[in-house]
Design a protein that fits this description.
It is a single chain. The chain is of the alpha/beta class and 314 residues long. It folds into three domains: 126 residues, Conserved hypothetical protein from pyrococcus furiosus pfu- 392566-001, ParB domain (Alpha-Beta Complex); 60 residues, no CATH class; 62 residues, no CATH class. Helix content is 48%, strand content 12%. Strands 1, 2, 3, 4, 5 and 6 form a six-stranded mixed β-sheet that branches. The chain starts with 8 loop residues before the first helix and ends with a helix. The N terminus and C terminus are likely disordered.
Length: 314
């Protein structure tokens, strides 16, 4: 018996057989039942994005990598669409569709399903949550939009529909209580202000105080645990000691010299604008050089700059 392809619990629950191979003449409804015959390859210009798509920003590098994969291996899993009038809307496969557009494809393989607007919203949420994570604020905003669109839905019911825990839904929605400035900071790709940090700040209630402490977290690079302890002490007694810097360590945010900044800039230029952090831990030359990368393309760029010239010589 052929093993069934796994798509993630929530996505399988909502769209049982999406991703399995079907004969050309078959289509699916939301439970996987065969419906009226429709072709499984259509004009790509007849397809529109999911109007309930929660992802607002698609990483250009990742789309280019996916497009290259399509060029090399083809489309291994058709996208899923529903018919609306004479056109089609994407139910699942937004990234594959965008990558195919980058490749200049005129047609794309699809599987059809019948889904109402509420099911479309749930499918879009589930696909993004389980396959390519949204940032925490995008998740929270998409949950809030869903609950506003379908009043009466509880956090528990939404969690069950998406196959995630109720506390996950509730905790993410609470992030929308933060000042917009902090929400924006969490969304920034290279931010050291994480959902864990700002979730701890919610206990402070006052937006001004939240913003003030967040600035310290970013400048002094507090850990989530340090932030939680500081906030707990502040709420309990009204007084809290900020985390202490380990003896002998100079934090770049506070003590970075012009020379170190210039060295970091030289490293970034040589490594293709990679994120570089140079830390001096004492006056004897001891320190740490940290080079960060966000995806395979950035890693390859760093690898090429550091290793390939040396290997060529050797």
């Amino acid at each position: 018996m052929e093993k069934k392809r796994r798509l993630g619990t929530g996505l399988e629950k909502l769209l049982d057989r999406i991703g399995s191979t079907l004969p050309e003449s078959e289509t699916l409804n939301i439970t996987g039942e065969r419906q009226t015959p429709l072709s499984n390859k259509i004009d790509i210009m007849m397809i529109e994005s999911n109007p309930f798509q929660p992802r607002k920003v698609f990483d250009t590098v990742e789309l280019e990598e996916l497009a290259q994969s399509l060029h090399t291996h083809g489309l291994l899993q058709p996208i899923t669409v529903r018919q609306v009038g004479e056109r089609y809307q994407i139910v699942a496969g937004e990234r594959r569709f965008r990558a195919a557009m980058l490749m200049g494809w005129s047609e794309i393989a699809v599987q059809f399903c019948e889904a109402d607007d509420q099911q479309m919203a749930e499918l879009a949420l589930t696909e993004n949550l389980q396959r390519k994570d949204l940032n925490a604020i995008e998740k929270a905003a998409s949950f809030a939009t869903y609950l506003e669109t379908y009043p009466g839905t509880t956090h528990e019911e939404l969690a069950n529909r998406l196959a995630i825990s109720r506390p996950t839904v509730t905790n993410l929605l609470r992030l929308l209580e933060l000042p917009q400035q902090l929400q924006d900071a969490v969304c920034q790709k290279d931010s050291n202000l994480t959902p864990g940090h700002v979730r701890a700040l919610l206990a402070l209630k006052e937006a001004g105080k939240q913003t003030e402490i967040a600035a310290k977290i970013q400048a002094e690079e507090w850990s989530v645990r340090e932030t939680e302890k500081f906030v707990q002490d502040l709420v309990r007694t009204g007084i809290a000691e900020p985390p202490k810097t380990p003896e002998g360590i100079l934090r770049i945010a506070d003590h970075q010299s012009e020379q170190i900044r210039q060295l970091e800039e030289e490293f970034r230029h040589y490594l293709g604008s990679a994120k570089v952090r140079l830390t001096q831990t004492n006056g004897k030359g001891k320190g740490k050089l940290v080079i960060s990368f966000a995806n395979h393309a950035e890693f390859e760029q760093i690898y090429s700059a550091l290793c390939k010239p040396h290997r060529a010589v050797g």
